[in-house]
Amino acid sequence: MGRPYVIYTRCHDALVLYMLCHLDLILQHSIRSFSCPVSKHHPLSVLVSLLTLPDSVEMAFSHLSRFWGSFSSLCLLAFISSLDVAVITTALPSIISDLGGATQYVWVANSFILASSVLQPVFGQVADIFGRQPPLLASVGLFLLGSGIAGGATQVSMLTAGRVVQGVGACGLYVLIDIVCCDLVPLRQRGKYVGILGAFAGLAAAVGPFIGGILASAK
After folding, report:
1. What is the C-alpha to C-alpha distance for residues 140 and 173, in angstroms, rounded to an integer?
2. pLDDT of 121 over the 60 cut
3. Smaller CB count within 10 Å for the chain: N or C?
4. 4 and 61 in contact (C-beta within 8 Å)?
5. What distance in Å separates the CA atoms of residue 142 and residue 69, rounded to the nearest whole number?
């Protein structure tokens, strides 16, 4: 999934290592070889070829079908995790009227926001230690588990507990979506694709209240 990033990183490491090993040759020849032809084995020629290699990696990156499948999944996760925050705003009064617990309604929404914020550094560190896939799958699993608990709640305390579990899963999704996207996309094109992820999250925030109102009125 992250092959372009791995290739790019190895090219960068090879470039740094080459420059460190041949720094004296580069300095000697860079001054006296501007007016004469440079062979393909010249240090400057090798340096130029290494510098232009990431461009070819970016060209190959734009044609990878596996990338688009992975990126579409990230967009879907960004949409769903943001939609959950927006839906509850209009559906909460109906939920409280059915379950009771009018004095605890504040925690139904705030528990999700709190749980989705405090553990973000932890998920980032876990992703650095164990890789991207295990914590991402765990986050999706926690989000689904919390959604099931909240959907089947019979009282406000159970709903709040489900929202906490759901928030922990969303916390991992918030962090890992950006991390995986930055792993897949070269640095030069990274802003465009992160912006697309943000657009899906913004779309979810825009349509969420309408969906929540439809669900609340259809009980």
Report:
1. 7
2. yes
3. C
4. yes
5. 22
